[in-house]
Design brief:
The complex is a heterodimer of chains A (265) and B (143). Chain A is mainly α and 265 residues long. Chain A has 2 domains: 31 residues; 231 residues, no CATH class. Chain A has 14 helices and 3 strands. Chain A has a 3-stranded mixed sheet with strand order 1-3-2, with helices on both faces. Chain A starts with a helix and ends with a helix. With 143 residues, chain B is mainly alpha-helical. Chain B has one domain. In chain B, 73% of the residues lie in helices and 6% in strands. Chains A and B meet through helix 1 and helix 7 of A and helix 3, helix 4 and helix 5 of B.
């Protein structure tokens, strides 16, 4: 009997040892896994972007786009993020919303730009969406919500337009889970601090959103996957309370006001 | 790892055929049941049940074929559920996962070659003992 136990142990060690030795090889590089997943993400990004551009009106006004791009550039430069990896699109829609889609695309509704009190508040929202992109939350969320098989069928063009529209709807109207939202908030604060942008303006923006939330939503908030806006504002303020950075607005107040008046026209 | 040994008696033609079939059964099950590892074990177990009252030589080899499926069941099941979690949850393909699956393929391939060899030799009436599994089989299977 001890001989059998010893042999079983040897077999277990043999398997684990084989696994360990094989793990030393960079299979991800050999099988080009990253390249393949990046390509899939790009294809999905193009597909969803096409859906949004077909259904909504994209804003191409230079006075709006240049301000948005300058803010994005500022955050990217301060955080060593390749600015060409993130593409911000502004959609004409009164809803206060912004979301990330695969392939580094971020969709911002004009309603959000109008609602943001200043450029720093918008920078906070943008930094939050950029954090979702950089932390690969978008693909994680999609795989969790619809499964890898559905995503692969969409990327290869065999998923059908109805399915693609439904998945696009998920991206624009549902939040990430609580853990990922908090992770993105913390990363966003880090981005803002490095860019010398005051994250307190993001907290103020979230307080504003919280005040506008209907009473029903407030009651349901405990069951929601999205963290309570007030709670988010609080932990953002807690994170920066010891900061001694001299904050600056990412763009001048005039440019921000000009952007908002362009959107009102 | 695999040794030809002398059995307690010289098995007859009919016995050799049945004993060899127990390995063939696990081979067919491997092909059918690759996505669901439990199928291999169930198939071999059904064959074992059908022959548990057979002659000593047949019983011995049915038991060895059944036991050889157990270790694969664990590693294949783990690999199967890991793959499922990659397709349906937020779990992602990693170097660790690829290394695990390659180790699984390596062990399955070794078992497959050993099974084919044993099926051929057993058909000729030769008694093949597998490392570890033969010891457990001898414990469980008495004349």
């Amino acid at each position: 009997m001890p001989k059998i136990v010893l042999k079983i142990l040897i077999l277990v060690v043999l398997f684990l040892g084989t696994w360990f030795v094989l793990e030393q090889v960079n299979w991800m590089k050999i099988f080009k896994v990253k390249k393949l997943t990046d390509e899939t993400e790009q294809k999905l990004g193009q597909l969803f972007l096409k859906i949004f551009t077909e259904r909504e009106t994209m804003i191409v006004d230079k006075s709006v786009i240049s301000v948005v791009n300058d803010i994005q550039q500022k955050i990217c430069t301060a955080n060593n993020i390749n600015s060409s990896d993130i593409i911000v699109h502004v959609v004409e829609k009164n809803e206060v919303n912004a979301f990330a889609i695969p392939g580094g695309h971020i969709i911002v509704y004009s309603g959000l730009l109008k609602e943001a009190k200043n450029a720093s508040a918008f920078s906070g929202v943008l930094a939050h969406e950029m954090a979702h992109q950089e932390l690969n939350h978008v693909m994680k969320k999609l795989v969790k919500e619809v499964g890898l098989s559905v995503l692969l069928s969409l990327a290869t063009g065999s998923g059908g337009s109805e399915l693609a529209t439904q998945v696009a709807q998920i991206l624009s109207s549902s939040a990430f889970d609580r853990k990922l939202e908090k992770e993105a908030d913390m990363k966003a604060v880090q981005y803002l601090e490095k860019a010398k942008i005051n994250a307190a303006d993001l907290a103020d923006f979230l307080y504003g959103v919280a005040e506008k939330e209907s009473e029903i939503t407030a009651y349901l908030i405990w069951a929601s996957t999205h963290p309570d806006s007030k709670q988010r504002a609080q932990y953002i303020l807690d994170k920066i309370k010891t900061s001694s950075i001299q904050y600056r607005s990412p763009v001048t107040e005039e440019r921000w006001k000009s952007l908002q008046s362009s959107l009102e026209d | 790892m695999i040794q030809i040994k002398s059995f307690a008696y010289e098995p007859g033609e009919h016995e050799s055929e049945k004993a060899s079939n127990s390995y063939l059964m696990s081979l067919i099950a491997v092909m059918v049941g690759l996505p669901l590892p439990i199928i291999n074990l169930i198939a071999t177990f059904i064959f074992y049940l059908g022959n548990r009252k057979g002659t000593y030589f047949v019983r011995w080899h049915c038991t060895q074929a059944l036991l050889s499926q157990f270790s694969l069941l664990f590693i294949n099941s783990f690999g199967f559920w890991w793959t499922v979690s990659i397709f349906f949850t937020e779990e992602q393909i990693s170097n660790r996962y690829i290394a695990y699956m390659l180790a699984v393929i390596l062990f399955n391939l070794t078992e497959l070659i050993a099974t084919i060899y044993t099926a051929i030799q057993t058909r000729k009436g030769k008694h093949i003992e597998w490392w570890l599994y033969a010891d457990i089989t001898s414990l469980l299977c008495k004349p």
